[in-house]
Design a protein that fits this description.
By secondary structure, the chain is an alpha/beta fold. Helix content is 41%, strand content 11%. It has ten helices and nine strands.
Protein backbone atom coordinates (compact mmCIF):
# COMPACT_ATOMS: atom_id res chain seq x y z
CA UNK A 1 0.00 0.00 0.00
CA UNK A 2 1.37 3.43 -0.95
CA UNK A 3 1.61 6.20 1.66
CA UNK A 4 -1.04 8.19 -0.17
CA UNK A 5 -3.40 5.23 -0.34
CA UNK A 6 -2.96 4.66 3.39
CA UNK A 7 -4.00 8.28 4.04
CA UNK A 8 -6.97 7.91 1.72
CA UNK A 9 -8.19 4.83 3.55
CA UNK A 10 -7.76 6.50 6.90
CA UNK A 11 -9.80 9.52 5.80
CA UNK A 12 -12.50 7.44 4.13
CA UNK A 13 -12.99 5.39 7.29
CA UNK A 14 -14.07 8.52 9.19
CA UNK A 15 -17.81 8.80 9.76
CA UNK A 16 -18.74 12.35 8.75
CA UNK A 17 -22.28 12.34 10.16
CA UNK A 18 -23.33 14.43 7.16
CA UNK A 19 -25.98 12.89 4.96
CA UNK A 20 -27.37 13.13 1.48
CA UNK A 21 -31.11 13.65 1.80
CA UNK A 22 -33.88 12.33 -0.38
CA UNK A 23 -35.15 15.41 -2.27
CA UNK A 24 -38.78 14.46 -1.66
CA UNK A 25 -38.86 13.00 1.83
CA UNK A 26 -35.82 14.90 3.19
CA UNK A 27 -34.79 11.69 4.88
CA UNK A 28 -31.12 10.60 4.93
CA UNK A 29 -30.21 8.08 2.25
CA UNK A 30 -26.40 8.05 2.25
CA UNK A 31 -23.67 9.24 4.56
CA UNK A 32 -21.32 11.63 2.80
CA UNK A 33 -17.59 10.91 2.67
CA UNK A 34 -14.61 13.17 3.14
CA UNK A 35 -13.77 12.89 -0.56
CA UNK A 36 -16.87 15.04 -1.12
CA UNK A 37 -15.51 17.84 1.09
CA UNK A 38 -11.73 17.81 0.87
CA UNK A 39 -8.79 17.05 -1.41
CA UNK A 40 -5.04 17.32 -1.85
CA UNK A 41 -2.89 19.91 -3.60
CA UNK A 42 -2.13 17.53 -6.44
CA UNK A 43 -3.21 18.34 -9.98
CA UNK A 44 -3.20 16.27 -13.14
CA UNK A 45 -0.93 18.81 -14.84
CA UNK A 46 0.24 21.62 -12.52
CA UNK A 47 1.55 25.03 -13.46
CA UNK A 48 5.31 25.52 -13.55
CA UNK A 49 6.74 27.31 -10.53
CA UNK A 50 6.12 31.03 -10.30
CA UNK A 51 9.72 31.94 -11.11
CA UNK A 52 9.28 30.28 -14.50
CA UNK A 53 5.97 32.05 -15.08
CA UNK A 54 7.47 35.44 -14.24
CA UNK A 55 10.37 34.80 -16.56
CA UNK A 56 8.13 33.64 -19.41
CA UNK A 57 5.73 36.57 -18.95
CA UNK A 58 8.30 39.30 -18.33
CA UNK A 59 6.73 42.63 -19.29
CA UNK A 60 3.34 41.03 -19.95
CA UNK A 61 0.11 40.94 -17.98
CA UNK A 62 -0.53 37.54 -16.44
CA UNK A 63 -4.09 36.33 -17.07
CA UNK A 64 -5.76 32.92 -16.71
CA UNK A 65 -6.36 32.65 -20.46
CA UNK A 66 -2.72 33.37 -21.26
CA UNK A 67 -1.52 30.93 -18.60
CA UNK A 68 -3.82 28.27 -19.98
CA UNK A 69 -2.73 28.80 -23.58
CA UNK A 70 0.96 28.64 -22.73
CA UNK A 71 1.12 25.86 -20.12
CA UNK A 72 -2.15 23.91 -20.62
CA UNK A 73 -2.56 23.18 -16.89
CA UNK A 74 -5.10 20.59 -15.81
CA UNK A 75 -6.41 21.32 -12.32
CA UNK A 76 -8.28 18.02 -12.03
CA UNK A 77 -7.21 16.00 -9.02
CA UNK A 78 -4.22 13.83 -9.95
CA UNK A 79 -5.32 10.41 -11.20
CA UNK A 80 -2.06 8.85 -9.98
CA UNK A 81 -1.87 10.45 -6.52
CA UNK A 82 -2.98 7.37 -4.59
CA UNK A 83 -0.85 4.93 -6.58
CA UNK A 84 2.52 6.70 -6.63
CA UNK A 85 5.13 5.78 -4.04
CA UNK A 86 5.97 9.30 -2.93
CA UNK A 87 5.83 9.98 0.83
CA UNK A 88 2.77 11.87 1.99
CA UNK A 89 3.42 15.57 2.59
CA UNK A 90 1.90 16.22 6.01
CA UNK A 91 4.10 19.21 6.73
CA UNK A 92 1.08 21.46 6.17
CA UNK A 93 -2.71 21.16 6.18
CA UNK A 94 -4.76 23.89 4.47
CA UNK A 95 -8.19 25.04 5.63
CA UNK A 96 -10.77 27.14 3.78
CA UNK A 97 -14.14 28.27 5.11
CA UNK A 98 -16.74 26.39 3.05
CA UNK A 99 -17.29 25.02 -0.42
CA UNK A 100 -17.95 27.81 -2.91
CA UNK A 101 -19.69 26.03 -5.78
CA UNK A 102 -21.12 28.70 -8.07
CA UNK A 103 -23.17 26.66 -10.51
CA UNK A 104 -25.99 25.74 -8.14
CA UNK A 105 -24.66 22.29 -7.28
CA UNK A 106 -21.37 20.87 -6.17
CA UNK A 107 -19.36 18.47 -8.30
CA UNK A 108 -19.86 14.81 -7.45
CA UNK A 109 -16.41 13.48 -8.37
CA UNK A 110 -14.21 12.22 -5.55
CA UNK A 111 -11.71 14.73 -4.16
CA UNK A 112 -13.06 17.37 -6.57
CA UNK A 113 -13.06 20.29 -4.11
CA UNK A 114 -10.32 22.87 -4.76
CA UNK A 115 -9.97 21.59 -8.33
CA UNK A 116 -12.74 23.58 -10.05
CA UNK A 117 -12.34 24.01 -13.81
CA UNK A 118 -15.80 25.30 -14.69
CA UNK A 119 -15.03 28.76 -13.25
CA UNK A 120 -11.28 28.46 -12.82
CA UNK A 121 -10.21 32.01 -11.91
CA UNK A 122 -9.97 31.31 -8.19
CA UNK A 123 -8.43 27.90 -8.89
CA UNK A 124 -5.62 29.64 -10.78
CA UNK A 125 -5.19 32.04 -7.85
CA UNK A 126 -5.10 29.20 -5.31
CA UNK A 127 -2.37 27.33 -7.14
CA UNK A 128 -0.39 30.51 -7.93
CA UNK A 129 -0.46 31.56 -4.28
CA UNK A 130 0.96 28.20 -3.20
CA UNK A 131 3.40 27.94 -6.10
CA UNK A 132 6.47 29.83 -4.89
CA UNK A 133 8.23 26.49 -4.54
CA UNK A 134 7.13 22.87 -4.18
CA UNK A 135 6.80 22.72 -0.39
CA UNK A 136 2.98 22.71 -0.43
CA UNK A 137 2.43 20.15 -3.19
CA UNK A 138 0.49 17.07 -2.15
CA UNK A 139 -0.76 18.59 1.12
CA UNK A 140 -4.28 17.94 2.39
CA UNK A 141 -6.81 20.76 1.96
CA UNK A 142 -10.28 20.95 3.47
CA UNK A 143 -13.02 23.36 4.58
CA UNK A 144 -13.74 24.02 8.22
CA UNK A 145 -17.52 24.27 7.69
CA UNK A 146 -18.71 21.16 5.92
CA UNK A 147 -21.70 20.59 3.64
CA UNK A 148 -22.45 24.31 3.35
CA UNK A 149 -22.40 25.59 -0.22
CA UNK A 150 -22.16 29.38 -0.64
CA UNK A 151 -19.84 31.33 -2.93
CA UNK A 152 -20.09 34.41 -0.68
CA UNK A 153 -18.11 33.92 2.52
CA UNK A 154 -19.84 36.97 3.99
CA UNK A 155 -23.08 34.98 4.12
CA UNK A 156 -21.40 32.14 6.01
CA UNK A 157 -19.65 34.57 8.33
CA UNK A 158 -22.96 36.21 9.17
CA UNK A 159 -25.16 33.12 9.37
CA UNK A 160 -22.70 31.30 11.64
CA UNK A 161 -21.97 34.48 13.67
CA UNK A 162 -18.27 34.39 12.84
CA UNK A 163 -18.12 38.00 11.65
CA UNK A 164 -21.27 39.73 12.96
CA UNK A 165 -22.76 39.65 16.46
CA UNK A 166 -20.17 37.23 17.82
CA UNK A 167 -21.94 37.46 21.16
CA UNK A 168 -24.56 35.24 19.50
CA UNK A 169 -22.04 32.68 18.24
CA UNK A 170 -22.71 29.00 18.77
CA UNK A 171 -20.25 28.85 21.66
CA UNK A 172 -22.08 31.54 23.63
CA UNK A 173 -24.81 30.75 26.21
CA UNK A 174 -27.70 32.18 24.20
CA UNK A 175 -30.69 30.44 22.65
CA UNK A 176 -31.20 29.60 19.01
CA UNK A 177 -34.36 31.69 19.21
CA UNK A 178 -32.23 34.75 19.99
CA UNK A 179 -29.95 33.96 17.10
CA UNK A 180 -32.93 33.51 14.77
CA UNK A 181 -34.33 36.87 15.85
CA UNK A 182 -31.08 38.52 14.79
CA UNK A 183 -31.04 36.79 11.40
CA UNK A 184 -34.65 37.82 10.83
CA UNK A 185 -33.82 41.40 11.84
CA UNK A 186 -30.89 41.58 9.44
CA UNK A 187 -33.04 40.23 6.63
CA UNK A 188 -35.82 42.70 7.38
CA UNK A 189 -33.40 45.64 7.48
CA UNK A 190 -31.75 44.58 4.23
CA UNK A 191 -35.15 44.43 2.54
CA UNK A 192 -36.04 47.91 3.84
CA UNK A 193 -32.74 49.34 2.60
CA UNK A 194 -33.23 47.76 -0.81
CA UNK A 195 -36.73 49.20 -1.05
CA UNK A 196 -35.55 52.67 -0.07
CA UNK A 197 -32.82 52.62 -2.72
CA UNK A 198 -34.95 50.94 -5.40
CA UNK A 199 -32.76 47.84 -5.45
CA UNK A 200 -34.02 44.27 -5.92
CA UNK A 201 -34.00 42.07 -2.84
CA UNK A 202 -35.58 38.70 -2.14
CA UNK A 203 -36.37 38.04 1.49
CA UNK A 204 -34.42 35.11 2.94
CA UNK A 205 -36.96 34.29 5.65
CA UNK A 206 -40.72 34.47 5.27
CA UNK A 207 -41.11 34.08 9.02
CA UNK A 208 -39.23 33.72 12.28
CA UNK A 209 -39.80 29.98 11.97
CA UNK A 210 -37.76 29.97 8.74
CA UNK A 211 -34.93 31.86 10.41
CA UNK A 212 -35.01 29.50 13.37
CA UNK A 213 -34.79 26.47 11.08
CA UNK A 214 -31.63 27.87 9.49
CA UNK A 215 -30.08 28.58 12.88
CA UNK A 216 -30.84 25.09 14.16
CA UNK A 217 -29.33 23.59 11.00
CA UNK A 218 -26.22 25.80 11.16
CA UNK A 219 -25.76 25.07 14.86
CA UNK A 220 -25.74 21.35 14.12
CA UNK A 221 -23.38 21.83 11.15
CA UNK A 222 -21.00 23.85 13.34
CA UNK A 223 -20.75 21.14 15.99
CA UNK A 224 -20.48 18.31 13.46
CA UNK A 225 -17.82 20.23 11.53
CA UNK A 226 -15.78 20.71 14.69
CA UNK A 227 -15.83 16.98 15.43
CA UNK A 228 -14.97 16.14 11.83
CA UNK A 229 -12.12 18.65 11.73
CA UNK A 230 -10.53 17.04 14.78
CA UNK A 231 -10.81 13.63 13.09
CA UNK A 232 -9.19 14.99 9.93
CA UNK A 233 -6.30 16.45 11.89
CA UNK A 234 -5.70 13.17 13.68
CA UNK A 235 -5.68 11.29 10.36
CA UNK A 236 -3.38 13.77 8.59
CA UNK A 237 -1.17 14.57 11.59
CA UNK A 238 0.08 17.85 10.07
CA UNK A 239 2.99 19.81 11.41
CA UNK A 240 1.25 23.11 10.65
CA UNK A 241 -2.27 24.32 9.84
CA UNK A 242 -2.63 27.16 7.33
CA UNK A 243 -6.01 28.89 7.01
CA UNK A 244 -7.28 30.99 4.12
CA UNK A 245 -8.60 34.27 5.51
CA UNK A 246 -9.74 35.63 8.86
CA UNK A 247 -13.26 34.18 8.75
CA UNK A 248 -11.97 30.60 8.54
CA UNK A 249 -9.54 31.38 11.33
CA UNK A 250 -12.35 32.77 13.49
CA UNK A 251 -14.40 29.64 12.84
CA UNK A 252 -11.55 27.42 14.00
CA UNK A 253 -10.93 29.63 17.03
CA UNK A 254 -14.57 29.38 18.07
CA UNK A 255 -14.48 25.61 17.64
CA UNK A 256 -11.80 25.38 20.30
CA UNK A 257 -14.57 26.02 22.83
CA UNK A 258 -16.61 23.00 21.69
CA UNK A 259 -16.49 19.56 23.25
CA UNK A 260 -14.85 18.26 20.07
CA UNK A 261 -11.52 19.57 21.32
CA UNK A 262 -11.85 18.11 24.81
CA UNK A 263 -8.94 15.77 25.49
CA UNK A 264 -7.33 16.66 22.16
CA UNK A 265 -4.31 18.77 23.22
CA UNK A 266 -2.29 18.12 20.06
CA UNK A 267 -5.07 19.26 17.72
CA UNK A 268 -5.83 22.23 19.98
CA UNK A 269 -2.21 23.33 19.79
CA UNK A 270 -2.27 23.05 15.99
CA UNK A 271 -5.27 25.41 15.81
CA UNK A 272 -3.82 27.82 18.36
CA UNK A 273 -0.62 28.01 16.29
CA UNK A 274 -2.25 28.11 12.86
CA UNK A 275 -1.00 30.57 10.26
CA UNK A 276 -3.33 32.77 8.21
CA UNK A 277 -2.73 33.67 4.58
CA UNK A 278 -4.74 35.68 2.07
CA UNK A 279 -7.82 33.90 0.73
CA UNK A 280 -7.49 33.17 -2.97
CA UNK A 281 -10.91 34.71 -3.68
CA UNK A 282 -9.47 38.14 -2.77
CA UNK A 283 -9.76 40.47 -5.75
CA UNK A 284 -6.31 41.32 -6.99
CA UNK A 285 -4.59 41.03 -10.36
CA UNK A 286 -2.73 37.86 -11.16
CA UNK A 287 0.67 39.52 -11.13
CA UNK A 288 0.08 40.33 -7.46
CA UNK A 289 -0.68 36.71 -6.63
CA UNK A 290 2.73 35.71 -7.95
CA UNK A 291 4.85 38.69 -6.85
CA UNK A 292 3.15 39.54 -3.54
CA UNK A 293 0.93 36.83 -2.09
CA UNK A 294 2.93 33.73 -3.05
CA UNK A 295 6.02 34.97 -1.16
CA UNK A 296 3.80 35.97 1.79
CA UNK A 297 2.22 32.51 1.79
CA UNK A 298 5.66 31.35 2.91
CA UNK A 299 6.90 34.23 5.08
CA UNK A 300 3.58 34.63 6.93
CA UNK A 301 3.67 30.93 7.79
CA UNK A 302 7.29 30.97 8.86
CA UNK A 303 6.79 34.11 10.97
CA UNK A 304 3.81 32.73 12.92
CA UNK A 305 4.37 33.08 16.66
CA UNK A 306 4.24 29.66 18.28
CA UNK A 307 2.16 29.32 21.43
CA UNK A 308 3.64 26.57 23.58
CA UNK A 309 1.30 25.52 26.36
Amino acid sequence: MTPHEAIRQSLESIQTDFWELDPKTKQPVRELKLHEFASFLACERPLPLNATILRDFAGQAIKPKALGEKYHPDFDFSSTFFTDDQPFNNQYMFVGLNVAARTGAADTREWWNFHDKKLPTNTFKLYLELNQDERYRGCYITDVIKNTVDSDSANVGQNFFFTKSKKLSFIQPVSDQQRAAKLFEWDKNAAATALATDQPYERLYASMADALQEVVTNHEVFNKSARLFVAECKAINPEKIIVFGDTAKEALTQMLATTAFDNEPAVRKLVENCAEIRHYAYRKNFNAWITEYAPKAITDVEDTVIIDQ
